[in-house]
Amino acid sequence: MGSLYGALSIATGALGAEQGALDATTNNVANANTPGYSRLQPVLVESSPIEVGSVTYGTGVSLEKLQSLRDPILQLRIQEETQQQGQLNASLAAMQQAQVQFTTSSGDIGTEISNFFSSLNQISTDPTNLTLRQGALTAAGNMATAFNNTANSLSSQQSSLDLNVTQDVGQINVLTGQIATLNTQISELQGVNQDASALLDQRDVLVGNLSNLIDVSSIQGDGGLTLTTSNGTALVVGGQSFALNTQTNASGLQDVYAQGNDITADLTSGDLAGVLQARDQTIPGLLSNLDALAEGISNALNTANQQGFDLNGKAGGNLFVPPPAGGPGAAAGMAVAITNPALIAASSDGTPGSNGNLTVLSAVQNQPVVSGQTPTGYYSNIVFSVGNDVSNDTAELSASQSILSQLQDQSNSISGVSLDEEASNMVQYQRAYDAAANVVTTINDMLYTAINMDTLTV
Amino acid sequence: MSSIRVNPYPMPDLLAALENLQQQQNTATLELASGSSINKPSDNPAAAAQLVQINDLSSQVDSYQQSISSLSGQFSTADSTLDSVVTVLQRAISLGVEGANGTLSDTDRADVATELTGIQSQLLSLANTSYQGQYIFAGTATTQPFVADPTQASGVRYAGNNGTNSVSIGTGYQLQINLPGSEIFNGPGADVFQAINDLITSMQNNTGIAAAVTELGTALTYVSGQQVFYGNALDQTQSQQTYLNTQSLGLSQQQNTVGAANLAAVASQVENDQIATSATLAAIGKMPQTSLFDYLK
Question: Which of A23, A195, A247, A422 is most exposed, with minimal Cβ within 10 Å?
Fold first, then answer.
């Protein structure tokens, strides 16, 4: 048999539960714009009923917990895609900067090569004309300068990427330190069965930031969250973080070390991997192509010049400063070896009016000078590969962006706060609260009736 | 509550869409402004590489055309110089024929001889013609090719050499641009200076004039024969010029095909992007400014 006090306790329980549910709504509304916030949902459960004889009496409702709504698998996918995007962003930014050098303009290498051979051809119509000879010498200087400028600008880009490596490592260390601290706090709260959802949200944001910088695999174990790079180097294990550091390598660039091991070559995604890829592969690749081209052109023209005679009837010497054999620096160091235009060996027989050797010099324009390709042919291949890299990276980045935005949509549809929904929940909880309060009033009336039963006039 | 929950934050997606549209518009506007669809290698890597090669070919064709225009001055000078040589030689022959006429007095022949001496120095000067500071009949030497020299039988010594020059006026097309002076004026048995010298001597001595006139005739024929070289060279450069013009036109058409922006298409793309931008902005503007909260009063 039920009792009025029993009913009263059910009603007050309901008041408490609805208030608690309203707390969740309040917190959700307050954090509607907080990045990384996962909305709370009250978990209301029916209290265990009491059986008296054949009748089962309900005992009301209780608020079991406020549950934070999140999808860990989706979070992992978002982390992975963020890493991919971080890497593409970094390498694309570097390539876009590099390709400016290879855009056809009035001073790019391709144009200057054509200009040089064009001025060289002009000498043949009047081989003793010093103005024409000076023109060719100036064009040779411009060609060398185009090589110097392009190579120097790529090298300085490499240096600033090197600086990015150090900065990235610094940021990674700050983030792993913060994540380790949060791990400790989360374990402490969870150890005493407290709700840690606010800290979990914060940690998700930090792990997201970390994913943008480096490839992170996360393992959720008993001791908390463990973060490693994809090749297994530990970054965070529970409450402990492992800082990365950098060391200068043989070529003067910073290598990334984790606990004494060089992991530079093992990083596969994240901004750091993209920066390293541009610094250690893309730009050095371009530089070595330019070196090969500068070396090929310089050597071929020197050989051709040595086959002839200058305006004074002396055997021709070097037109360009001999490049370092097969080594780096040919493009950055390309320079014209002569300042006197009379030293261009136009003559094939030593007579000053002969132009016979110009044919040999001009032929370099259409003869293989490097990897079986003509100067312009080889250069146009460099242009193609630069353009192609940028264009491929752009396509990949745009694909990755749309995947990431879909994943985020999905994640928001689970964890994001909808104000409409919160308003409707609020109404719902408020009405339930009103109803429970009414029940309390009614029971109060009934109790009053019961207490004053004897004084009631019949 | 069985419906699928939607993402309550559509704003980042809309902003990303706006950003993409802005990027597209920037690219299209750049194409319109530059008239080129390849403003950086990544716009079309294969076409950018092709353009580098086409530009190089086009620069080679330009340089051949420039060579031809420098050469044509040289060829015209040589051709008209040899024209004058022929005219002067004809005058000398008619003087010789006049002198061979037995009715002339010694004084008359002396006058003719004087005039012939004038012609001799005229020929010497013609043979030393220069074009832009360079003797055109000196072979590949730069010194004055014909020098008066009394020790020589002809009275003139050739100080040039036998070298010839060639100039590229097309891919693999080498044109010989000069004849050494010795091949024009000192032909075997047809030496211009020997012949005029012989005529003067015979005129002064009144002996062998007819033979000297014949000798001069032979020299004249020989020089005329050599003159053909320059006429031919001029013709060759002119027809090559026509060919190069065609080639240059073809190359600039290729440049356009490969790299020019399709203005109509780009303009309509800009238009489309603008419409899409307005639509997206309108969508953002029309997003509910209110929520259910505003209605719970």
Answer: A247
